[in-house]
Amino acid sequence: VVVEYADNPRMADPRRSAAVATSAASDFVAVVELAGLAPSSRVHYRVLVDGGVDRYLDAKGPFSFRTAPM
């Protein structure tokens, strides 16, 4: 699993997280660290599985969240 993230909803010039493996032992849950996020900013992201956009989330994303203020 890789998370691709950007400061714009078009996902132009995205950054990527390090790849994280999942397994049945972890209930296929992944914890992904996103580096270099600015405080009080909107971050747009999509989940990549095996190198492509997750087929279950493709039509719904990209998603977004706001980082905490300083």
In short:
With 70 residues, the protein is an all-beta fold.
Furnish the topology, listing elements before pairings.
Elements: E1 2-6, E2 15-16, E3 42-49, E4 52-53, E5 63-66
Antiparallel strand pairs: 1-2, 1-3, 3-4, 3-5
Describe this entry's structure for a reader.
Strand 3 and strand 4 (52-53) form a beta hairpin. This protein has strands spanning 2-6, 15-16, 42-49, 52-53, 63-66. The protein is built from no helices and five strands. Strands 1, 2, 3, 4 and 5 form a five-stranded antiparallel sheet that branches. The protein is mainly β and 70 residues long. The model has no long low-confidence stretch (mean pLDDT 91).
The percent of residues in helical segments reads under 10%
Global Rg: 13 Å
What's the overall average pLDDT, rounded?
Answer: 91
pLDDT < 50 runs, ≥5 residues:
none
For the biggest sheet, the summary is: 5 strands, antiparallel
N-to-C CA distance: 29 Å
